[in-house]
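Hi all, posting the design record for the shared folder.

TITLE: backbone redesign
STEP: 1 of 1
STRUCTURE INPUT:
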């Protein structure tokens, strides 16, 4: 597994040609008390950098929930985050390698090291205007004053991603760069526009939303064309220039310049000879070894605001390895259960499904015969002195469809009763409990009769005296009793209810 992961690892050093400032007047702020704007951050200039020494620009305590800051609420408004149980520190640094959420890419996580050597977890970073704000978990053993002193303006701190933070960064870069590649191929080769995309939580597949569905052949073609470029090892670089405030750049799927961005920088991600797209996210310096796998079907959005919009799911990098590993594990496990080799699993599963269908049909046929026999047994019961047939019959049944079987009995009985020239008035209560009962067990109850009013009256009595929850209409009433059903208690109560009913 370690070897497989290594084959997808990016180079350890970002090439010097990766980050290119193309405006003559644009410079990176050097004043340690001035924050470098989002668009020129170290994480965007050098996405493979894991640690950095920098200075604090500001720090404050916040107990308010963090809010979405990428300038878009999306189709569904995000629910308000719960307020943290302990206060968070909001820290703005001169520079950072912790990427703040934006461009459809979630925030990085990382660690700050204060001057006293203490480690502080950065649980999230957000862009506020043009600045990256780090939300740092407060240490309960330290006072607020101590924390503010350690992160006073001008204090030198270390910023690192840590092992878990770098794994998260690598995953995000793989999926984000793959999305740029996939969208470019779909647009240039198939003339299919990408409307939006989502970088989902690891390890689930990410997706692009497309203006139309794709055939299996088109999906395979897009995957082949994208991987041709991957095998060529096309390079990726970033071009940065001053943002013209009079121009709104909103091209590309969920990418562009948000209306609340005040950093003054326009950043364009370029895949050599393939794509140019405004984006603030972190990207690999090359698509080499970034094999792309497209799930071979699309999902139509039932409630899409865009008519005909579909989702195409894709995997790359660590997610692809995780997917292959878990898929192989599931296939191997299933092959063991089915006592066959992996290639024979589909055939064996199909056999089991067919056998299950036949077994289900056989059970249904036998239950129909049994229901008819039980109905005949009920019909043979001696009527009361007044000539009406009144009966309670209880059964033990562990089937999940016990009520369906009781309904089959009632249907068979009512069919027999309808055949008689002078039918006998009847009122029957059927109940069915599982063999092992507890306080949460469910007993199903079915009432049916020749007089709709008597059926309703019996149902009302069951609800009132046994708390049977249910209802019905016409000649049938059904409900459920929760708890332990005992013949000498609940059964006797049903018998008493029937005895009290007068025809």
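Okay, here is what came back for every position:
SEQUENCE:
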């Amino acid at each position: 597994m370690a070897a497989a992961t290594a084959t997808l690892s990016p180079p350890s050093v970002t090439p010097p040609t990766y980050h290119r400032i193309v405006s003559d007047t644009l410079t990176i702020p050097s004043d340690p008390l001035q924050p470098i704007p989002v668009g020129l951050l170290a994480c965007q200039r050098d996405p493979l950098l894991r640690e950095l020494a920098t200075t604090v620009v500001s720090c404050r305590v916040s107990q308010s929930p963090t809010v979405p800051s990428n300038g878009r609420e999306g189709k569904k408004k995000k629910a308000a985050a719960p307020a943290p149980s302990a206060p968070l520190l909001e820290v703005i640094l001169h520079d950072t390698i912790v990427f703040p959420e934006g461009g459809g890419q979630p925030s990085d996580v990382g660690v700050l090291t204060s001057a006293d050597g203490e480690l502080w977890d950065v649980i999230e970073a957000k862009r506020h205007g043009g600045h990256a704000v780090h939300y740092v978990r407060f240490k309960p053993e330290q006072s607020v004053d101590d924390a503010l002193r350690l992160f006073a303006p001008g204090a030198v701190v270390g910023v690192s991603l840590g092992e878990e933070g770098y794994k998260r960064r690598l995953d995000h870069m793989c999926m984000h760069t793959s999305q740029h590649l996939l969208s470019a191929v779909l647009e240039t080769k198939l003339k299919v526009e990408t409307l939006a995309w989502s970088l989902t939580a690891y390890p689930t597949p990410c997706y692009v939303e497309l203006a139309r569905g794709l055939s299996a052949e088109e999906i395979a073609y897009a995957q082949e064309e994208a991987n041709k470029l991957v095998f060529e090892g096309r390079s990726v670089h970033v071009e940065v220039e001053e943002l013209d405030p009079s121009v709104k750049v909103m091209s590309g799927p969920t990418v562009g310049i948000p209306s609340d961005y005040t950093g003054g920088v326009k950043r364009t991600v370029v895949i050599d000879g393939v794509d140019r797209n405004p984006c603030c996210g972190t990207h690999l310096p090359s698509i080499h070894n970034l094999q792309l796998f497209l799930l071979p079907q699309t999902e139509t959005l039932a409630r899409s605001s865009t008519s005909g919009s579909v989702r195409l799911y894709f995997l790359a990098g660590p997610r692809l390895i995780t997917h292959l590993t878990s898929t192989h594990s599931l296939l191997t496990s299933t092959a063991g259960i089915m006592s066959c080799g992996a290639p024979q699993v589909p055939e064996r599963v199909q056999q089991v499904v067919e056998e299950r269908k036949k077994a289900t049909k056989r059970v249904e046929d036998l239950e129909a015969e049994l229901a008819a026999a039980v109905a005949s047994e009920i019909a043979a019961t001696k009527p009361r002195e007044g000539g009406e047939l009144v009966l309670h019959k209880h059964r033990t049944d562990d089937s999940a469809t016990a009520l369906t079987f009781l309904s089959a009995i009632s249907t068979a009985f009512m069919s027999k009763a309808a055949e008689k020239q002078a039918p006998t008035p009847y009122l029957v209560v059927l109940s069915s409990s599982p063999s092992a009962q507890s306080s949460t067990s469910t007993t199903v109850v079915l009432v049916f009769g020749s007089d709709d009013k008597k059926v309703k009256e019996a149902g009302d009595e069951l609800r009132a005296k046994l708390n049977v929850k249910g209802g019905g209409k016409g000649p049938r009433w059904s409900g459920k009793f929760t708890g332990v059903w005992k013949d000498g208690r609940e059964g006797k109560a049903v018998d008493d209810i029937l005895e009290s009913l007068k025809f």
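COMMENT: The CA atoms of residues 19 and 439 lie 67 Å apart.
Let me know if anyone wants the other runs.
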